[in-house]
Amino acid sequence: MSKIRRLRRVKILATLGPASQDPAVVKRLVQAGVDVFRINMSHTSHDMLQERVQTIRALEKEIGHPIGILADLQGPKLRVGQFADGGVDLPSGAHFILDADKTPGDHTRVHLPHPEILSALRPGHTVLIDDGKVRLHVSEVSKGRAVCMVDVAGRISNRKGVSLPDTEIPVSAMTEKDRSDLDAALHEGVDWIAVSFVQRADDIAEVKKIVRGRASVLAKIEKPQAIARLDEILEISDALMVARGDLGVEMPVEKVPGLQKRITRAARRLGKPVVVATQMLESMITSPVPTRAEVSDVATAVFEGADAVMLSAESAAGQYPVEAVAMMNRIAEEVETDPVFRAVINAQRVAPEATGADAIAVAARDVAETLDLKAVIAWTTSGSTAFRIARERPQPPVLALTPNRNTARKLTLVWGVHPVVTKDASDLDDMAARACKFSNREGFSKEGDRVIIVAGVPFGTPGATNMVRIAFTGSER
C-alpha cells in the first residue's frame, strides 16, 4: 500500500460494522480516505471490539501511518416496556399512561422501566416515542405514573425508544454497560471515547475521571440540555460531535443547521476538534451514488471548517461502504480547492488567546501564508502545538512530528494535521534538519522549498510552544 498522503484538510471518520469488518475491506476504506474508525459499542461485543482494533493496528503497521480509533459508548437508552399484543395504535387526542407497572401494556397504558424518568416528568413536558413518530405531552403526574395526551397519532410497539426534549434526566450519561465497554475500550488502547446523550459537563468529567488521560474524550451533542450548557461542556471536553440524528428528534429539525454552525464555530474558537455526523450520505446505504442534497450537506460541513465528517450506516451496514468513503473524499477535495473555501475559512478566524503558544501559532500561520511556505511543521509531545496551529486553519498543510504514538493517533481527527511518529529532536539543528527531511519524505515539499517549524524548548516539554524557525528543505539550507 502506498504512503498515506491526503490532499484534503478535513478528516473522514467511518463506522465499522457487518459491511466493513473484513480486513480487506478495512484496508480499502483507508485507501479510499478513512482517517479514523468509529466502533459503535451499541452493536459491538468486547470480543468484536478486540478483533476490530487488532485489524486496524495491523493495517496501521503495514502502511506505516497512524490510524485513529473512536469507541462510541451507547449511553442510556430509554425505552417503553412490552405490550400484550406487541403494540397499539394511539389516536390523536387520546389519553395514554406511562407507569411503573410491569404488566404488559394495552391501548390505555404501558410500563416505563425508568423510575427516574417518571419522577422527573412534569405537566407540559413532551414525550417522543420511536424517534418522534408518536408525540405525547404530559398532562398529569403522580407517584409512579404520568398521564399523557396524544398530540401526534401513531403506533407504539414493544421496546420503542423514548426521547424527552424538555426533561432533564437525573441520571449519569454512563450506564453499567457503558462502564464495562469503556474499560474494554481502554484496555484495547482506543484513542477517542465518545460519550452519548451528554446533558451537563459533569457527564464528561465522570468519564475523564475513569479514563485518566489514556484516551481523549469527545462529547456528542444531541440533547437540548447540552445545547443550553454548550460552553461548559466544550470547556471540559477534548472534542465535540454534532450528532444530528438524535438532535433532530429532540429539537425541531429546522434548528439543526443553525446549531451545527454554532457548535462548529464554538469548538474552533477553543481549538477543539468538531465532528459533523449522521445521514451525511444516507442514500448510499442502498445506492452507489448520493443525492445532490447529500453532496451539498457534506460540502457545507467542509466549508464550515469542521475537523471531520462521519459516516455511520453508510460504511457499517451499507451496500457501498468503500464507494461512500471515496465519494466523501472527492467532495472534500473539491470543496477545499474552490476559490470560495479559503475566504469562508478565513472569515471565521477569531482572536488568539493571550498566551505565548497561541501568539506563536498565529505568527506561524501568517508567515507561512505571506511567504507561501510549503508546510507548517510542529514538533509536539502532547499534541497541543498541533491543535493550536490547526485552530488557525493555515493554508499550507500541518505536519506534526511526535515521539508519542498515542499523540499521533489522536491527531488523526484534527483538521489539516498529518501526524508522523519519530524520536524527539536532540537540539535546534537536529529539529530543523529532521523536520525538513520528513517534509520532503511525506510529500509536502521538495529540496530547496521553504517550511516553517514550530516547537517548544526544552524539547519534550508538553505545552511549551515558544519558538518558530523558517528553514530550507534541501542542501541550500
- What is the C-level CATH assignment of the largest domain? Alpha Beta
* Count of helical stretches: 17
Biggest pleated-sheet summary: 8 strands, parallel, barrel
Please give the CATH architecture of the largest domain.
Alpha-Beta Barrel
CATH topology of the largest domain: TIM Barrel
How many β strands by DSSP? 21
Integer average pLDDT:
94
Oligomer: single chain
What ranges have pLDDT less than 50 throughout 5 or more consecutive residues? none
- The fourth-level CATH homologous superfamily of the largest domain is Phosphoenolpyruvate-binding domains
Key features of this structure:
477 residues, alpha/beta, TIM Barrel, M1 Pyruvate Kinase, Domain 3, Pyruvate Kinase, Chain: A, domain 1, 3 domains, 8-stranded parallel beta barrel, 6-stranded mixed beta sheet, elongated
Q: Could you please describe the fold and organization of this structure?
A:
This protein is an alpha/beta fold and 477 residues long. It folds into 3 domains: 11-75 and 172-339, Alpha-Beta Barrel (TIM Barrel); 87-163, M1 Pyruvate Kinase, Domain 3, CATH 2.40.33; 356-472, Pyruvate kinase, C-terminal domain (Pyruvate Kinase, Chain: A, domain 1). 37% of the residues lie in helices and 22% in strands. The protein has 17 helices and 21 strands. It has helices at 23-32, 46-63, 115-120, 176-188, 201-211, 224-228, 230-236, 244-250, 256-269, 292-303, 313-316, 321-336, 339-347, 356-370, 384-391, 405-410, 428-441, and strands at 11-15, 36-40, 68-72, 87-90, 95-99, 109-111, 126-129, 134-142, 145-152, 154-157, 162-163, 192-195, 216-221, 239-243, 274-277, 308-311, 376-379, 398-402, 417-421, 450-456, 465-472. An 8-stranded parallel beta barrel has the order 1-2-3-12-13-14-15-16, surrounded by 7 helices. α10 links the parallel β15 (274-277) and β16 (308-311). α10 crosses α12 (321-336). It is elongated, with a radius of gyration of 24 Å. The two termini are 32 Å apart. The model has no long low-confidence stretch (mean pLDDT 94).
